[in-house]
């Protein structure tokens, strides 16, 4: 656990970057620090591993005052990942990842073997291990940065905008991989970002800071969306709060009803079967593939190229936001619901999802 206890940083020129910050980052959870530029996120993070010393107040690592530990000992327990990865350009990927274990005197062969495992664990092709950082994409470099921070198996990880320098698609992949990895590792993580959507996606709890380095609100993502504490937080959290909060509302009781289907490759019964509008095409495993208009394509073979693929899929027990989106994006107006293996369970309408939402509110 990391605990900021009235931690304050005043720089020599008088700037108060962090002002009496009191905040606990619980063990095994992701705590995100978010806020506008200059609100003291990076300064707060660096006070944890003492790259920056607080002017007053204390930062605790479990029951230990971090000021009482030699910095190198403290940093051994704390991984650190920064934007642009900060890799050593003249070392291979493998040696970058093995940096800390080697510094700690681990046997070279063992260090490299574990580094290779980590390279795979963060989703990189092991063939990349021999390359130099400049021979990798930005997203791949960030993964190496994460692997390097994990190499000494520290219980705590500090991450400063680790995914900010890559394009939105890669960024989303990195976020998903990161959540998967954290599901396995359960580290205590303090994560800095200026992006509220990233904060809401990744955080078990989110601390919104204001310029001047004070804490505006500490809450779970769902609470933050539902009940921003003041106008500043409401403005920072942004638009569509009600809709975005549905990402945290789960639809275990979705009233899924049976949906008629036609198999890709077969000739579909169309209006002969009394179906008006659209029919759902599935593959041999009953995985939904797309929608086919029924009226005008009677008796023709259902081919991939004829399918309307606009509809998103929802999972039973998944977020109500996905369920509603499945309905709104489906040409038939019926949202397709699948099980965890992607097999068809049935469909639901927007009206039914909205009723469920209203029921929850009541
Ligand atoms: N070495 C320094 N000397 C004086 N002021 C500093 C120093 N480093 C940072 N500051 C100031 O402290 C405040 C907080 O900076 P910090 O980098 O912690 O903010 P941040 O929230 O991480 O910002 P950003 O999102 O822009 O990276 C800012 O006003 C910044 O100008």
What does this structure look like?
Keywords: ATP-binding, Nucleotide-binding, Transport. InterPro entries: AAA+_ATPase, ABC_transporter-like_ATP-bd, ABC_transporter-like_CS, CBS_dom_sf, P-loop_NTPase. Pfam families: ABC_tran. Belongs to the ABC transporter superfamily. This is ABC-type quaternary amine transporter. With 362 residues, the protein is α/β, with parallel strands linked by helices. It has 2 domains: 2-238, Rossmann fold (3-Layer(aba) Sandwich); 261-361, CBS-domain (Roll). It is 32% helix and 24% strand. It is built from 13 helices and 16 strands. The protein has helices spanning 41-48, 71-76, 93-97, 99-103, 108-121, 138-150, 168-185, 196-202, 221-226, 231-237, 241-245, 320-329, 350-361; strands spanning 2-10, 16-25, 30-34, 56-61, 64-65, 78-82, 156-160, 188-193, 205-210, 214-219, 261-263, 278-282, 288-293, 313-315, 334-338, 344-349. The strands form 4 sheets. The chain has a 6-stranded mixed beta sheet, sandwiched between helices. The protein has a 4-stranded antiparallel beta sheet with strand order 2-1-4-5, with helices on one face. Strands 11-12-13 form a 3-stranded mixed beta sheet, with no helix packed on it. Strand 14 (313-315), helix 12 and strand 15 form a beta-alpha-beta unit. Helix 5 (108-121) crosses helix 6 (138-150). The protein is globular. 37% of the residues are buried. The mean pLDDT is 89. The structure holds adenosine-5'-triphosphate (ATP).
């Amino acid at each position: 656990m990391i605990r900021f206890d009235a931690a304050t940083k005043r720089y020599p020129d008088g700037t108060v970057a962090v002002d009496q910050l009191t905040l606990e980052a619980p063990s095994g959870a992701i705590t995100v620090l978010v806020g506008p530029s200059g609100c003291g996120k990076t300064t707060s993070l660096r006070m944890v591993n003492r790259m920056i010393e607080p002017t007053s107040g204390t930062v605790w690592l479990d029951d230990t005052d971090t000021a009482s530990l030699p910095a190198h000992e403290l940093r051994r327990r704390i991984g650190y990942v920064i934007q642009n990865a900060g890799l050593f350009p003249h070392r291979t990927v493998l040696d970058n990842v093995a940096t800390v274990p080697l510094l700690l005197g681990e046997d070279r062969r063992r260090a490299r073997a574990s580094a290779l495992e980590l390279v795979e664990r963060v989703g990189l092709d092991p063939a990349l291990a021999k390359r130099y950082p400049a021979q990798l994409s930005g997203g791949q470099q960030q993964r190496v940065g994460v692997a390097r921070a994990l190499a000494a198996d520290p219980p705590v990880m500090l991450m400063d905008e680790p995914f900010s320098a890559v394009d939105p698609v890669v960024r989303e992949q990195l976020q998903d991989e990161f959540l998967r990895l954290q599901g396995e590792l359960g580290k205590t993580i303090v994560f800095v970002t200026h992006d509220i959507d990233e904060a809401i996606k990744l955080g078990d709890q989110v601390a919104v800071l204001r310029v001047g380095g004070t804490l505006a609100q500490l809450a779970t993502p769902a609470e933050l969306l539902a009940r921003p504490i003041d106008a500043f937080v409401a403005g920072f959290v942004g638009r569509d709060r009600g809709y975005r909060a549905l990402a945290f509302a789960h639809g275990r009781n979705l009233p899924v009803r049976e949906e008629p289907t036609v198999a890709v490759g077969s000739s579909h019964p169309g209006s002969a079967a009394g179906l008006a509008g659209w029919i759902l095409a599935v593959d041999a495993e009953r995985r939904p593939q797309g929608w086919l208009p029924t009226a005008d394509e009677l008796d023709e073979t259902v081919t991939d190229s004829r399918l309307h693929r606009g509809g998103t899929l929802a999972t039973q027990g998944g977020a109500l936001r996905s369920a509603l989106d499945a309905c709104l994006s489906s040409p038939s107006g019926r949202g397709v619901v699948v099980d965890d293996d992607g097999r068809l369970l049935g469909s639901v309408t927007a009206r039914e999802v909205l009723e469920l939402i209203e029921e929850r509110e009541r």
